[in-house]
Amino acid sequence: MHSYSKSPPCPPRRGVSPVDTAELPPTGGAGGAFVYDGTFDGFLTVIFEIYASKRKPIQIVSEHRCQPGFFETLEHIVTDAAKSERVWNGVAKRSNKKITRMFYLAFASELPDVEMTLYNYLEKLFADATGTFYKNLLDDHSFELYQIARKVSFEIHRFHGFVRFQETSDGLFFAAIEPDHDIVSLLAPHFARRYGSQPWVIYDRRRDKGIFWKKPDMHEITLTDKQFNTITGDILHQIKSEDEDLYRSLWKAYYKAISIPERKNTRLMLRLLPRRYWKYLPEKQ
């Protein structure tokens, strides 16, 4: 179950040392559509290039959402960590930790056109000479960003309770998830604290990536040998621990025992536990 390829550690952690964002000139002439690799660093690199070239984007779109022929001009931007760092430090200088987290949560939503929402917010943030724009949540773009981030934050909170681990024969805890938003790296700190010395993998089946934790290291991974059912998320029988099926049956029995049929409220249950999450919950099988 330990067959994986490493990617850069996540979630992104950057310093908040200020840089002179005044060096980034205001955008001016019209530009085309900017295409990036879908990563947060890639998006921030696009922002840098937009300001450096003084062009206003028609669209910013990730590679996997790009539709060839839809735009007359497509400019593919190569991710540059130094440029990304410079933009991110500029955001941190002109806001605070709460706003930078809100910004990243909104990016993680993967909603259509969220990149343009983020760009519109940054345009106002960088143009504000008073340095107080980040406090104005009544601004249209600020409020839209806040609403998106709140949806993502709510899903993170949900998954703190929705993750169901299975134990492998070598003592690794494994859980498959399929969230609406790209939150697997944002879930990781909670489970690292909760399961301290216990190695685990939480794997986002939809995005084919996960987080591997073995104290004190955390890595983003892509499993090259998927020893789990890609539909149900169940690990294969040959790598299960001897007690895994027993613990699963005990958990299902406990769930059934504490339910009170007379107080069943299907509408409320579906609101708190949407049906789309059920296939990864053994108690709902």
SSE layout and pairing:
Elements: E1 4-7, E2 29-30, E3 33-36, H1 40-53, E4 55-56, E5 59-62, E6 74-76, H2 81-93, H3 97-108, H4 114-127, H5 140-162, E7 166-167, E8 173-177, H6 184-194, E9 200-204, E10 209-214, E11 217-223, H7 244-258, H8 266-272
Parallel strand pairs: 2-4, 3-5, 3-6, 8-9
Antiparallel strand pairs: 1-11, 7-8, 9-10, 10-11
What descriptors fit this protein?
285 residues, 2 domains, six-stranded mixed beta sheet, disordered N terminus
Brief digest:
The protein contains 8 helices and 11 strands. It has helices at 40-53, 81-93, 97-108, 114-127, 140-162, 184-194, 244-258, 266-272, and strands spanning 4-7, 29-30, 33-36, 55-56, 59-62, 74-76, 166-167, 173-177, 200-204, 209-214, 217-223. A hairpin with a 5-residue loop joins strand 7 and strand 8 (173-177).
Structure overview:
The chain has helices at 40-53, 81-93, 97-108, 114-127, 140-162, 184-194, 244-258, 266-272; strands at 4-7, 29-30, 33-36, 55-56, 59-62, 74-76, 166-167, 173-177, 200-204, 209-214, 217-223. Residues 2-22 have low confidence and may be disordered. Strands 1-11-10-9-8-7 form a 6-stranded mixed beta sheet, with helices on one face. Strands 5-3-6 form a 3-stranded parallel beta sheet, with helices on one face. The protein has a two-stranded parallel ribbon with strand order 2-4. Helices cover 38% and strands 15% of the residues. The two termini are 24 Å apart. It has 285 residues and is an alpha/beta fold. It contains 8 helices and 11 strands. The chain is elongated and about 60 Å long. It has 2 domains: 21-155, no CATH class; 163-284, no CATH class. Strand 9 and strand 10 (209-214) form a beta hairpin.
